[in-house]
UniProtKB/TrEMBL annotation:
Biased segments, Basic and acidic residues type: 210-224
HTH deoR-type domain sequence ranges: 248-303
UniProt keywords, alphabetically: Transcription, Transcription regulation
Stretch list, region Disordered: 207-234
A GO molecular-function descriptor: DNA-binding transcription factor activity
UniProt cross-references to InterPro entries, sorted A to Z: ArsR-like_HTH, DeoR_HTH, RecG_C_sf, WH-like_DNA-bd_sf, WH_DNA-bd_sf
Organism: termite gut metagenome
CDD domains: HTH_ARSR
Record protein name field: HTH deoR-type domain-containing protein
Amino acid sequence: MPTSKKLFDTTHDCPTVGGILLVGKDPVHVLFGAYIQYVKFAGTSRTSRVLNERQFSGNLITMLNEIDYFIKYTIQTQRPVFVTVLREEMRINYPYEAIRELAMNMVMHRNYQTNAPAKFYEYSDRIEMDNPGNLYGKVRPDNFPNESDYRNPVIAETMKTLGYVNRFSRGVNMVQEMLEENKNGLAKFDFRDITTFKVTVMNADVEAESEAKSDTENGERRELNPANNENNIKNVEAKNIDEVTERVTEKQQLILDNIAKNPYITSNELAVQIGISAVKVRVNLSKLKDKGFIKRIGGDRGGYWKID
């Protein structure tokens, strides 16, 4: 099977580069730039405060699943907005399918011969993906995206087999349709740097990002009063540990620990810290409230958690 998929070189009795990337235990040990660097900035430039950062590494079979999950439950947000007095609609910052397609293309088409990682930077008003390696083969700025060629054909074939991409030059056109429908505007592709391929997608819900940034800054100012966090931590320590262990799961205990340190932590931040989806975090928060361990003071934006 590995030989048929061009993952192993029988002549030299060693895995191919595609094999190392797809199923190797630690590809970055050999290919130093084989990872995705994700950073979320509070503002519109790299000088802004960093809100979140993560490195997606490991073999591609694992990484593809992780980045897919991350985009769906951490990058994409939605909220109801009233369009008339009687009707509301969901406003989505970035359509999951569009950002997923661009991220998968980044993995499939990048140049793995460089030590530079692929960059996935999220600003308050946009997402930028900066990929080592510009257009390849017969693809040129004048025929992009209607022409296709593959720098990494083994990776492309495997990703197609696993259902992450198609190989009919339809992906980018579908992305543009989804972005226009969601009112993000068209993605902008930049081919000017011969060493990289850059795409920018504008945020369709900048207002929500501005509110979240304001809430975070207010929360940080409140945290300057040490009594806020100390009281929470004391409440946790004051509980009978055996009783708590019997009544909460391991994940719920991790949620309590994180809330004790930062009462203003969000569901998405908890998801990243604990390693579960934001949906599961909200389910566990609801259970902890029902059990009387925590209560919410204030609304979703600007409120905080209190441990009883």
